[in-house]
């Protein structure tokens, strides 16, 4: 396996053009977001491994016999130790094209019990979002106790809990890079940051949304919806298109997406297993 430098990432779109609309992958390829890329051969790559740090792994291209026989040991020796050090303790895998790879998964992983999951993609409708805005003029009393703000450098520096910096640096190479190319909304209760909605991946005029409410005591009050609403409004003002993807078991996330004007599409299969120490 050969690791590409960021200046060589364009090789992936040239040889695997069907990835052009994958926001997470393209965020890595543009070197906006943290990731590493490996290919099976430099001249005419047939298979690639893309690691979007803290998010997803991707097998891309054709499952050649050499790739199938060596990728598990390669991951164990070169990738998983680094992932575990960064707190990324789960292997989540998407396949492109899926039909090329799915039948090979049992033979690729011999040391792990591989589980199947379902991811739910959405597309954004500006018209449906505007309808939601027009119909939701009243705020709940519970939301009045929270403060919603755009994430700025001053906000990050003033965050004694370091939640903002930690969340941003999971996906971005630096805070400054995030501030120059991404956006975020945070919500506070008093001085405590209780939630964030960030552009966890960005390329061209596309943002992938990552949203978190950190304590259960603050959930179920509409915080996530309000953060995402403000994030989308800010995205649209800057000319960006928001993207939303989640797991099929995250019912609340699906409800929020539908409420805010996203259209749900058929789920697709992903594979996952916990990493060993």
Automatic annotation (TrEMBL):
<dbReference type="GO" id="GO:0016747">
    <property type="term" value="F:acyltransferase activity, transferring groups other than amino-acyl groups"/>
</dbReference>
<dbReference type="InterPro" id="IPR000182">
    <property type="entry name" value="GNAT_dom"/>
</dbReference>
<dbReference type="InterPro" id="IPR027365">
    <property type="entry name" value="GNAT_acetyltra_YdfB-like"/>
</dbReference>
<keyword id="KW-0808">Transferase</keyword>
<protein>
    <submittedName>
        <fullName>GNAT family N-acetyltransferase</fullName>
    </submittedName>
</protein>
<feature type="domain" description="N-acetyltransferase">
    <location>
        <begin position="150"/>
        <end position="277"/>
    </location>
</feature>
<dbReference type="Pfam" id="PF12746">
    <property type="entry name" value="GNAT_acetyltran"/>
</dbReference>
<dbReference type="InterPro" id="IPR016181">
    <property type="entry name" value="Acyl_CoA_acyltransferase"/>
</dbReference>
